[in-house]
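Trying the structure run again after the queue cleared.
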Amino acid sequence: MKKNFIGITGSTGLIGTNFIKEFTSYKFDKFQGNILVKSEVDNWIKNGKFNTIIHLAAKVPTSYVNKNFKKSKNINYQGTINLVKSALRFKKKQIKWFFFASTSHVYKMSKNKLHEKSKLKPYSKYGYTKLLAENHLKRKLPFKICIGRIFSVTHPKQHLSYAIPSVFNKIKKSKDKVLFLKNLNHDRDFCHVKDVCSAINILYLKNSEGIYNIGTSKKVNLKSIAKFFSKKYNKKIIFVDNLKKTIILSKINKIKKIGFKPKYNLKQILKEFK
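Done. Tokens:
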């Protein structure tokens, strides 16, 4: 087993590609099979030289999960079980640290900032699949389990169904000078993907276990994002709100205590959208 040799799933996803790009001093063994095929998972675990697993593979975004719930549940939940069972079978003593990328969607919505012990009541089907996996990981295991509940990760290369890319795309590509945008009166906690990667790395270096929120703890109303882009592209926005306002904000005191500090503010994030 080599130090800084990491087995990683989801290496082609947003967080995975950025994590590998950011931390070039690490050696990665990328799982490139089907996480639902046990033999493929077993071969990867059995033949790997890593003693750390960073499990990022999942079906997202929520719009996809809603339409393909059974498949998404299998990958997000059963896929995680397959990894753990294989690690127990072949690398029970060698695997030292297992990171699971979870989500803020496992929490019950609240006007207050959410901490790691806040009430759990998934507000999306995606959150439900992640909480199922979390519950499996909370049992006693011979290696350390670290769960990162990630709040609204964002990046210009995200799918257009995500909040910021969606608003940006509508405003930039519209030929109309006046736009009607629906249901943007929601508060979210947007975290740049590089900050998410930094948080995971700190948890890894500190050999942390337990549950940690990963976010910025900064409130951002979606309307402010639309106003930023409307000014940039000289558009007038008329907001139409038919839905009740929702609030999902993180409290990150726990991860800040071990050295995490978000570097990207909203303005820096939005400037990357071109």
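The chain has a mean pLDDT of 96. Worth checking whether this holds up in the mutant runs.
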